[in-house]
Write a structure and sequence with these properties.
The protein has a single domain, classed as 3-Layer(aba) Sandwich (Beta-lactamase), CATH 3.40.710. Helix 5 (about 130-135) crosses helix 9 and helix 7 packs across helix 9 (about 195-205). It has 14 helices and 9 strands. A 5-stranded antiparallel β-sheet has the order 2-1-9-8-7. A two-stranded antiparallel sheet has the order 3-4. A two-stranded antiparallel ribbon has the order 5-6. It has helices at about 5-10, 15-30, 80-90, 95-100, 130-135, 145-160, 165-175, 175-190, 195-205, 215-225, 240-250, 260-265, 300-315, 320-325; strands at about 55-60, 65-70, 75, 210, 230, 235, 270, 275-280, 285-290. It binds glutamine (GLN). The site of glutamine has 11 residues, from loops.
Length: about 375
Amino acid sequence: MTQHPRNAQLSSEPDRDRVMGALEALHARYRDCNEGRIADYIPELAKVDPESFAISIVTVDGEVFEVGDHEKKFTIQSLSKPFTHALALADRGREYVMQRVGVEPSGDSFDSIIRLDANNRPHNPMVNAGAIAVTSMIEGDTSEHRLNRMLEMLGRTIGSMPTIDQAVFESERTTGHRNRAMAHLILNFGIIERDVEDVLDLYFKQCSVVVTTRDMATMAATLANGGINPKTIERAIEREYIRDVLTVMHTCGMYNYAGEWAYTVGLPAKSGVSGGIIAVVPGQFGICVYSPPVDERGNSVRGIKVFEDLSRNSGMHVFETWHQTGQVLNHIDEVKDPSPALPDTTQPVGDATVHKREFELEDPSEMN
Ligand code: GLN
């Protein structure tokens, strides 16, 4: 029987030169981009080098493609959130987690403090309020036990045990008043059921875990690979919860940019204020882009540009048919030109005075 060409394509290995060529072209295209600002509301984060820029891809077969400063260490920040969500689901089950944290995009910024949903739950586990709630669900008898369980879980998805950047942790802990206020608000609504300072310490430590783009791409590849780390071939996340995590990443992972991201890039993803973005091409590979300057929504500027270009012609978007039929990496170098800029949706369209224009109405006495 002759093999169907589509099946042949499915089993084909990605061509190393093509993939590396595409990544190098994207790196060169955006290396000199100087838009965005380093997040400095966590003082320690302000010390990073804005020039750092790296892209790593890890496939479900464990193959690695990377360019730029891929050895550079940075703190994971919110890139940790999908993984602690998975741990909370494994520890407490779907029902318990969903009763306390929703799965609706909030349309608000990541640190929005004002809005809980109609049942006083955080909207989703990707915004800070929801992530703090989810972190409070990690089981363990003592603070140390809970911390170890979290680090072990992240370690299984990375392939080695991570460390914590103590300076970033202390910086977050001493300045994280907004997160503290949020934690107290959800404590008030019975979402948190443990000592609130202990929960916050664990959350700040979670955000201060040190990673590289390769670590993060491996973590994303673990999600792409149904929960099995492609490097260690060890199960890191229960198969059952991969769907939950990827769905929430798809709808909420990029905060108040999640809709536009789903439209232009079309991949489950997560960003963090330290400048990382991870995305998952289910069944194929994970990617991480790192570049510290972020936009007003807290998403890496270069990161977004790289993903938009990558997704434009490669068939990476989950709703593109190529994705169903073959190896996306074989189309990766069809990134000929930069993606056209989207309209700036942060500004109102037109001038409000337009709507104050007077209408010439017919004289009612002449109407019959
Ligand atoms: N540690 C950060 C905070 O809680 C994480 C936010 C983020 O990466 N978007 O504010």
